[in-house]
Amino acid sequence: MAGRGGLLMLENFIGGKFLPCSSYLDSYDPSTGEVYCHVPDSGEEEVEAAVEAARAAFPGWSSRSPQERSQVLQRLADLLEQSLEELAQAESRDQGKTITLARTMDIPRAVQNFRFFASSTLHQTSECTQMDHLGCLHYTVRAPVGIAALISPWNLPLYLLTWKIAPAIAAGNTVIAKPSELTSVTAWMMCGLLEKAGVPPGVVNVVFGTGPRVGEALVSHPDVPLISFTGSQPTAERITQLSAPHCKKLSLELGGKNPAIVFEDANLDECIPTTVRSSFANQGEICLCTSRIFVQRSIYSEFLKRFLEATRKWKVGIPSDPSADMGALISKAHLEKVRSYIKKARLEGAQILCGEGVDKLNLPPRNQAGYFMLPTVITDVKDESCCMKEEIFGPVTCVVPFDSEEEVIQRANGVKYGLAATVWSGNVGRVHRVAKRLQSGLVWTNCWLIRELNLPFGGMKSSGVGREGARDSYEFFTEVKTITVKH
Ligand SMILES: NC(=O)C1=CN([C@@H]2O[C@H](COP(=O)(O)OP(=O)(O)OC[C@H]3O[C@@H](n4cnc5c(N)ncnc54)[C@H](O)[C@@H]3O)[C@@H](O)[C@H]2O)C=CC1
Ligand SMILES: N/C(=C\C=C\C(=O)O)C(=O)O
User: Could you tell me what reaction this enzyme catalyses (predicted)?
Assistant: First the structure.
């Protein structure tokens, strides 16, 4: 829909209808720095309307059979797939990611999220135990909880939002989704497909706007008993505070400071390209990205030389260039934040071996004001440095040497986060030993980001609370009851 000045103007989606809002936010194209879209700046009033619609839809939707709900999810997956190219173009423009990544990862995964939960929801079973000596049979039943608040970030917009919507509605809940105000377009486009897929009005409502306004109104609403959030740790803390008086059910998927551990027997032909990708994919804006690379001292020089060569070939380009490996960062503020870490590293005496401030970025004139930076490698950095401790969430990675297995486990575990780690070694015993001792919700050995959606996904320590996946999401989005029958 075209709005002011011919720019795209989004609307909230409440009770099956697109509704205008009284005020709007500017949304920027990260590759040019220009405003290209207006996003509703919703608040309490819109949340109240969405709660009303979700409440009205709950009895009908929750009493449908899992098979009926599953068919609706399958149809939605088909419709998203038919719009894959259009959605990929929109995601790439809105977020700054390359069109190639949007085409091959973001949108296919959004489709897969609906297909996956359409299927997995049909295979959930409940428990039963017996106490024959007391003549008792015990079993559990599960029911959808009610209205779920789903809050998602800007890095993988449709991918992460659908990872929440699909299991929530498959289990019979109705939802109010709040995408990031920085990347709202593909969620809005998806709303246009819901009716055709057979999603009844009010089952999926989407309110757009900022965290402090619409986000807080949503998470503190007394009639919204569960919240699934993906984003930063400070926001998770705020959501926890606001929801505490109501004892809401919370699932929090937060940041990481993910280590890659490269032992001397690693296959560097596989490790180097994968570690470049794990450090810089999506501009380093994935919570699973590697940002601390520990390399065993005997291969440190060789690794560093080859890693730098491969990083220099990681092409930064405009998002629509199909040959680009990396596009623009999400916002000016975020680019400045990421760059500030490089400045701090320099002041601490670290070496910046390539990227920011070292190499030159070549961009077309139209993109000079876009939020681009080169993939950057830091060395000679202490474990206590902010670059080794804090989530930068950009194309920046640190490479440091280590001597022993015991030492590297302690150092890898020495941060407040515990989301994802990679271990590179040809020694199977070592791989199992190290993986088991890492404080990390996910460990990939000799690979990265191979996702098995059935199994638990989520972090330890400050990386989150709860897990997502076939069984885990089903348990989160349902309330369990234990029934005892004396016979
Ligand atoms: N999954 C992850 O690990 C992610 C981590 N981050 C980290 O967070 C940093 C800041 O990025 P932000 O976009 O500011 O993340 P954020 O955590 O503030 O935003 C995530 C979502 O939460 C919403 N939100 C913000 N404040 C809220 C509140 N008070 N109540 C309810 N909802 C609220 C936002 O509107 C957005 O939809 C990044 O630099 C990065 O380090 C950001 C996005 C994803
Ligand atoms: N939650 C994030 C990534 C998840 C990836 C996946 O489920 O495959 C993130 O980057 O915030």
Answer: 2-aminomuconate 6-semialdehyde + NAD(+) + H2O = (2Z,4E)-2-aminomuconate + NADH + 2 H(+)
